[in-house]
Amino acid sequence: MPAFELSPDQISEMATAIRRGMEVYVNKEHGRLLIADDPERNVRADPEVFEIIMQTVATDPDSYFHLEKLDAQRGIDIMKDFTNRIRNQELWQTLTYALKRPKPFRTFKEDLRKYPKAYDKWREFRQKQYEKYVRTEIAKLDESPES
């Protein structure tokens, strides 16, 4: 069992960071979060903060758990799961088609924005799925032989 427990706010923060493509590290002993946005990926990211966090992790890499980003297929699966819950036939068809077109992430989002209530539900659903992913990954610390 990890020596720490993450709060719902921390799990939400980690899920949001992962969704936005940031690097997320958790100290295995006390649960301190290190979240860094890569300046090569995001021009608004602070390169100094990124460098400090990367150096902190590099000094003792075994003390940190790196929360991996979701792969593209997992992201598409989340969109499919949401789409399969849609009762509005027109919206269901639109989103199903969006997932089959080039650039499914962008197309899905653009098409869904035309339905504001459904878009809000999507954002809630997506956040819950990312939080579930974070909890699953953190639970793996329980299974590691070092714990």
Description:
This protein is mainly α. It has 2 domains: about 10-70, no CATH class; about 70-130, no CATH class. Helices cover about 60% and strands about 10% of the residues. The chain has 6 helices and 3 strands. It has a 3-stranded antiparallel sheet with strand order 2-1-3, sandwiched between helices. Helix 1 packs across helix 6 (about 115-145), helix 3 packs antiparallel against helix 4 and helix 4 runs antiparallel to helix 5 (about 105-110). The longest helix has 28 residues, at about 115-145. The chain is elongated, with a radius of gyration of 18 Å.
What integer value in Å does the Rg equal? 18 Å
Strands in their spatial order, largest beta sheet = 2-1-3
> What is the overall pLDDT average?
92
Strand content: 5-15%
Order of helices and strands: HEEHEHHHH
**Count of discrete domains:** 2
Tell me the number of strands.
3
Helicity level:
55-70%
Uncertain runs = none
Count of helical regions: 6
Structural class: mainly alpha
Shape: elongated
Q: Span between N and C termini?
A: 6 Å
Oligomer: single chain
Sheet of most strands = 3 strands, antiparallel
What would the keywords be for this entry?
147 residues, mainly alpha, 2 domains, 3-stranded antiparallel sheet
Architecture blueprint of SSEs:
Layout: H1 8-19, E1 23-27, E2 33-36, H2 47-59, E3 64-67, H3 72-83, H4 89-100, H5 104-112, H6 116-143
Antiparallel strand pairs: 1-2, 1-3
